Amino acid sequence: GIYIAGQTSPGGIEMRMGSNFAVPNSLIGSIPRTDNIIVRHIRSRVGEHSNRPSDNGDAMRFSKGKNIVLDHVSAQYGTDESIELDCEDCTVQWSIIGPNICRDAGHSSAIHCKTFFLKPSNRVTVAYNLSQHGVQRGINLSPGDQFPAVGSTGQADILNNVLYNFTEEGALLSNQFGSVYVNYIGNTFFR
């Protein structure tokens, strides 16, 4: 497992994409199928990369992992999403997600302004976060498994989040990967 304890560093840890960074994928992420990850008190900022176009550009991305916790993180200025998770038994809590850079910032689509993407994710808790300033995907969640068997289910607890200033779609829950069981409680939308 991996534990990044940003709270032990005076002033915390901030990561920014520099001009020599290769084609952007994500600043903080895992190779697929890396399990048991805890990331706490980290700030991740992607920023524009128009001279290095990419379909990605996430501040944080974790793929096909299990037992992942993001706690007190700040993921901002992504050109794809600020946080993208494909995980099982994962938690995102007490974090700031977005804003993204939306126009001509390096994504292959001229306008791409999505913030928080969990697909597919199962047994996930998203609690006490601020997701802010975007067009879509304030929280976009498709619970379940990538290759669901007949009768598969996906479970999520979406609790007490604030979604601020989304112009089209603040939240989306999808049954793309199986039947969805969601506790969607106490979330607030502001425009």
Tell me what the structure shows.
0% of the residues lie in helices and 51% in strands. By secondary structure, the protein is mainly β. The chain is globular, with a radius of gyration of 16 Å. The N and C termini lie far apart (39 Å).
Overall mean pLDDT stands at 82
| Tally of DSSP β-strands | 17
Radius of gyration, rounded? Answer: 16 Å
Q: What is the subunit arrangement here?
A: single chain
* Percentage of β-strand residues: over 45%
State the helicity in percent bands.
under 10%
Global morphology: globular
Main traits of this protein?
191 residues, 17 strands, mainly beta, ten-stranded parallel beta sheet
Task: Summarize, please.
The protein has 191 residues and is mostly beta strands. The protein is built from no helices and 17 strands.
Walk me through the topology.
Layout: E1 2-5, E2 13-16, E3 26-29, E4 37-40, E5 42-45, E6 58-71, E7 74-76, E8 83-93, E9 96-97, E10 116-127, E11 130-134, E12 139-143, E13 153-159, E14 162-166, E15 171-173, E16 179-185, E17 188-190
